[in-house]
Design goal:
The chain has about 260 residues and is α/β, with parallel strands linked by helices. It has helices at about 10-30, 35-45, 50-60, 80-90, 110, 130-140, 180-185, 205-220, 230-245, 245-260, and strands at about 70-75, 95-100, 120-125, 145-150, 155, 165-170, 190. It folds into 2 domains: about 10-15 and about 65-225, SPOUT methyltransferase, trefoil knot domain (Alpha/beta knot), CATH 3.40.1280; about 35-65 and about 225-260, no CATH class.
């Protein structure tokens, strides 16, 4: 599929803002009700969704993982970054981190193809001077092994990356690559083996190649690497809310009638 770059910057920004607002509304909902009430709301919304769509959501939930996550540092080409996020969704990666530095992330709705609403996108804005450090710390606290994609000496082929721990795969810009800070913080340096004169891939292509390799291997592991039951319940409600037309308003109406 050819990705045509949307020329309307305001349209791209508005699209992504809608997605972020929906996610923020969902997060506020999660904080205001207990798990039993979440289940009741999920059952209520299920009445507005076709059996085919509900079955598809269950199928995708069973394939989703947080065992792998992806972090993008200082990306600025909106079509490449947006296509990379679409690759994350296609390969079942739930969480993606956007670390802004000199460049603000500007999504491209044409390249995202609606994938953003199914992802948990954690944005680390450039207004936080310690955003990179805080992102890496939060990932380590979550038990993640930090793997930096690079062509530097000492990097190993992506096929050699062990998956005995949860892994966060870092990608930088196509021109400069990852910063020195990420290289120093990384537990492992990895690369995609290349056989041509051109020693670089388009960002979205590189992400897709890495995720294809890692998710393929992940699927062959005996241990379960999917979402927990609680994570599935939370995402199911979020996805139902975004699937149903005016889902947030329906939830508000339901809560009003239940006096929650």
């Amino acid at each position: 599929m050819i990705c045509y770059v949307c020329g309307d910057r305001h349209k791209r920004k508005a699209f992504f803002t809608v997605i972020i607002n929906l996610k923020q509304a969902s997060n506020r909902l999660m904080m205001s009700v207990n798990r039993q009430q979440q289940q009741e709301i999920t059952n209520y919304l299920a009445g507005f969704i076709s059996e085919h769509k509900k079955n598809k959501i269950e199928e995708i939930l069973n394939k989703r993982t947080r065992y792998l996550t992806v972090a993008f540092e200082n990306v600025y080409q909106s079509h490449n970054a947006s296509a990379a996020l679409r690759s994350c969704e296609c390969f079942g990666i739930q969480d993606a981190h956007i670390i802004e530095k000199n460049n603000s992330f500007k999504p491209n709705s044409d390249c995202l193809q609606g994938s953003a609403k199914w992802l948990t996108i954690k944005k680390h804005p450039h207004t936080d001077p310690d955003n990179l450090e805080n992102c890496i710390r939060s990932l380590r606290d979550g038990g993640y092994h930090i793997a930096a994609t690079t062509l530097r000496e000492g990097s190993i082929p992506i096929q050699g990356l062990f998956l005995e721990k949860k892994t966060a795969l870092f990608f930088g810009t196509e021109k400069e690559g990852l910063s020195e800070e990420v290289h120093r913080a990384a537990d492992t340096l990895v690369q995609i083996p290349m056989r041509g004169f051109t020693q670089s891939f388009n960002l979205s292509v590189g992400v897709a190649l890495c995720l294809y390799e890692l998710t393929k291997r992940l699927s062959h592991l005996k241990e379960h690497r999917g979402l927990s039951s609680e994570e599935k319940d939370t995402l199911r409600l979020e996805w139902y809310t975004r699937t149903v037309h005016h889902g947030d308003l329906l939830i508000k109406k339901y809560l009003d009638t239940q006096q929650v």
